[in-house]
Structure formats: structure tokens, C-alpha cells
Amino acid sequence: MNDEKFIEALKNKDQKAFKILYDEYAPKIYGILKNYVRPNEIEDALQEVFLRIIRGINNFEGRSKLSTWIYRIAVNVGKNYSRSYSKEVEKPMDLDSDEPENFSVQPISETNVKKEAFNDINYQIILNIMEQLDKDERLLIKLRDIDGLSYNEIAEITDLPLGTVKSKLHYARKKLKKLIEEANLI
Predict the structure, then answer these.
(1) Burial class (CB in 10 A: 0-12, 13-18, 19+), 30
(2) 1-88, what's its fold?
(3) Does domain 110-186 bear CATH number 3.30.450.20?
(4) How many Cβ atoms sit within 10 Å of the Cβ of residue 155?
(5) Per-domain residue ranges of the chain
(6) How far apart are the C-alpha atoms of 38 and 93, rounded to whole Å?
(7) For every one of its 186 residues, what pLDDT tens digit does the chain have, with 9 covering 90 and above?
(8) What is the pTM of this model?
(9) 43 secondary structure, DSSP code
């Protein structure tokens, strides 16, 4: 289905189109939101992004690609959550509480457990290293190097000039490379 037909199906409240939308974009939106939203609130933020998409699809005029419009919504929702955190007073963790924290257990494939375990470890190390970058640097790397968006799309999503996107991405990659080298992964 081409973009125009897909957008039209979304505007007509086609359930199959919404399922396709969710299946295709939920992981990408989740990746963006991880840069802004606390892990225990990320599902709420993800729902908010999809609600905004559903409510706003009829106003989508096609001046940008659908993906760019969706990423922009995700960034805005993430920034709203991030702003709300800066207004909160940090409360200390209750170590005596019997309440479990939000832990996520990912099942490991039975096919090659050793290989997947090493891949998971390396992936986790890289994620930990990326946490040392600021959220804007992580977002730029994700949008360009993981999601494969063009510089123009990133500029539109982040509301930054094209030259600034290129420059910031260059320095973010350079910083990430240095951090990876310091961790002896290269």
C-alpha cells in the first residue's frame, strides 16, 4: 500500500491500517521515547503518541513524510515528559519497601544461547555507553544511524537547521566513538 492510500485508510479509521501503523512505528517511537521518558512511564508515553497520531491524522496535510510527522510527535511527547521531570522534586528510593521495581525480563532464544548472551552483553554495554551522551546526541544517532532518516528529515523532526543537525551528529558520533574506544570495545 503506498503512502497516500495508507494515510487515506488511517483517515477513514481503517483498523488494519492502524495495526500496520502500530506494528511498524511502535518500536521506533519506543526508541525515541527512551531518550526522554522514565522506563516506568514509557508505555504511557507510547500510548500518548499514538493517541496524538489518531487524533491528528485528519489534519495531516502531507507537507512532510508521514514518518517525519510521527517522529516529530514522538519527540514532542518525550520533551513534554522530560520537562515534567525537571519540575519534580526527586524523592529518595525506599530500600525497605517490598514493592518490586519495574523489571523487564526478555526471553532468550533457545537456538544459540551463548551467541545471543554475548550479543546482549555487547548491546547492553553500547546502550550504557550511549547513556553517557546527552539525550539530544542519542536522539540524533538513533534517527540517523539506527532508523536511517535523512538529514533533512531529522532537521524537520528536531526543529534544527540542517547544518546544525550535521554538525551535532558529527560531534555526537565522535564522542560515542571515543567512549567506545575507552571501553575497549574497538
Answers:
(1) middle
(2) Rna Polymerase Sigma Factor; Chain: A (1.10.1740)
(3) no
(4) 18
(5) 1-88, 110-186
(6) 15
(7) 678 899 999 999 888 999 999 999 999 999 899 888 888 898 999 999 999 999 999 999 888 889 999 999 999 999 998 887 766 655 554 544 445 454 444 444 444 554 554 555 566 677 778 888 998 999 998 888 888 889 999 999 999 999 999 999 999 999 988 888 887 765
(8) 0.64
(9) H
